[in-house]
Amino acid sequence: MFLLGLLRGHCSRWLGVLLLAGLGVQLPTAAAPAPDSTLLVVGDSLSAEYGLQRGKGWVALLEAQLAEQRAAPKVVNASISGDTTSGGRSRLPAALAQHKPSLVVIELGANDALRGLPLSMTEANLREMTRAARATGARVLLLGMQLPPNYGKTYGEEFAALYARVAKDEGAALVPFFLKGVADGPDPLKLFQADRIHPNESAQPLMLGNVWPVLRPLLAK
Fold first, then answer.
1. Of 6, 32, 108, 193, which residue is most buried, by most CB within 10 angstroms?
2. Cα distance between residue 5 and residue 159, in whole Å
3. DSSP bridge partners of 38
4. Among the options 45, 47, 79, 102, which is catalytic?
């Protein structure tokens, strides 16, 4: 993924580390969601447990956290390594029809940047996915990404801004930077696998910690 460029770039130019959840720290308890609800995650390798032991990724950690709640939602992880927003857009309608989720988490866009796809295409795909999910009555949470400095300031700012724009226009919740505290730390190599591309097991609680404060209120609705 494009994170290889981040690890070779100048990490000091990123925003300071904000760890919303430390390793081993118990996350706050959410209000019990409605019975028989489903939470659908549509993402790429960051959510598909690439290179990790099954059950160690952030989605699995979320499922375990929610299992402690009464009437916990069913978690469906429909993430595919290497997927783009175009791929997610094409398969989302079938996933919505099959699982009938009450909440959809969309974690896509990094591979669009890696392939140099037009930002307008990425934005259009995310916008359409959000609309399709909301049309079924589901709430939507977008997990935003940011690019390393070597992509250029203008391109990076425009890439980050498209997530905020889609969330605002389409009424979705937003995590501005899914990998905050992971990719922008003082020594990010400690939180990545040997390929220097994919976050390792130690990074997964931090990723969940970035998602949880925004996700938690949505579960109570």
1. 108
2. 15
3. 74
4. 45
User: CATH says 3-8+35-219 is which class?
Assistant: alpha beta
Residue 10 is among the residues annotated as catalytic for this protein: no
Question: Above 70 in pLDDT, residue 20?
Answer: no
Question: What are the contacts of 190-196 at 24+ separation with CB within 8 A?
Answer: 192/3, 192/7, 193/51, 195/51, 196/3, 196/4, 196/7
Q: Determine whether 36 is an active site residue.
A: no
Residues listed for the chain: 221
**What average pLDDT score do residues 70-74 get?**
86
Query: What does the alpha-carbon distance between residue 6 and residue 147 come to, in Å, rounded to a whole number?
Result: 7
What is the widest separation between alpha-carbon atoms in the chain?
47
What distance in Å separates the CA atoms of residue 76 and residue 41, rounded to the nearest whole number? 6
Whole-number Cα distances in Å, 65 to 56, 60, 68, 125: 12, 9, 6, 30
Q: Answer whether 67's CB lies under 8 Å from 104's CB.
A: no
Query: Which member of 90, 169, 195, 202 is catalytic?
Result: 195
**pTM for this model (two decimals):** 0.84
Please report the sign of the dihedral spanned by the C-alpha atoms of residue 49, residue 52, residue 54, residue 60: negative
Output the six-digit token pair for 115: 């392939």
Q: Locate the domains of the chain by residue range.
A: 3-8+35-219
User: Is residue 31 over pLDDT 80?
Assistant: no
Q: Looking at the DSSP assignment, which residues form a beta bridge with residue 39? A: 75, 103
CA distance 65 to 72: 9
Alpha helices in 100-186 (DSSP H): 110-114, 119-135, 153-170
